[in-house]
Amino acid sequence: MPGKSRQGNSVRVIGGEYRSRILHFPDATGLRPTPDRVRETLFNWLGQRLHGLTCLDAFAGSGALGFEAASRGAARVVMLERDGKARDALRRNAELLQTRNVEIRQMDALAYLAGVGDLFDVIFLDPPFDSDLLPAVVQSAATRLRPGGKIYAESPAPFRPEGFSVVRQGRAGLSHFCLLEPV
């Protein structure tokens, strides 16, 4: 569960190599880390180990999803964060964890996904909670998936985009979350 410590906001890595490590992040509008319970469910769905997979955390924020994927053996995790303070915190956390498989880029997720470039096995989409970005971004994300790839989407309301099958779905508090595959 995200919390406040003397050093500010924090979230705990729940599994893998960095298990129980605490990540700190700044206050930022719309930044709301994926709760422990939801992350645990998601990584149970994906399989606890992500060895060899490439992941994109498109709205990295606190880095909870991306660092969790890195902790569980993903070969490469690209984290996108538009906010400079949050990006700096992501870099500090990557240094603290001594990650070698994480790339942090300060850029807009929609612009990145609309471009041509790398393909990913898993794309995490957890845009700012009060935004309406998810419908547009999920369509762009589908163009950046490898065959057999999956998209994790988190939103304040149930989400069933056209052109996707819902592999798994759940709800925790105000968050609705699902694992999607393009059809």
How would you describe the overall organization of this protein?
- The chain has a single domain (3-182), classed as Rossmann fold (3-Layer(aba) Sandwich).
- The radius of gyration is 15 Å and the shape is globular.
- A hairpin with a 2-residue loop joins strand 1 (3-5) and strand 2.
- It has 5 helices and 10 strands; from the N terminus they run E-E-E-H-E-H-E-H-E-H-E-H-E-E-E.
- The N and C termini lie far apart (34 Å).
- With 183 residues, the protein is of the alpha/beta class.
- 26% of the residues lie in helices and 32% in strands.
- The strands form 2 sheets. The protein has a 7-stranded mixed β-sheet, with helices on both faces. Strands 1-2-3 form a 3-stranded antiparallel β-sheet.
Could you give a quick summary of the protein structure above?
This protein is an alpha/beta fold and 183 residues long. 26% of the residues lie in helices and 32% in strands. It has a seven-stranded mixed sheet with strand order 6-5-4-7-8-10-9, sandwiched between helices. The protein has a three-stranded antiparallel sheet with strand order 1-2-3.
Write down the Rg: 15 Å
H/E series: EEEHEHEHEHEHEEE
The N- and C-terminal alpha carbons lie at a distance of 34 Å
CATH topology: Rossmann fold
Largest sheet, spatial ordering of strands: 6-5-4-7-8-10-9
Which descriptor suits the 3D outline?
globular
The total tally of domains equals 1
Structural class of the helix and strand makeup?
alpha/beta
Count the strands? 10
CATH architecture: 3-Layer(aba) Sandwich
Q: Look at the structure and name the CATH superfamily.
A: Vaccinia Virus protein VP39
Number of helices: 5
Helix content: 25-40%
CATH class: Alpha Beta
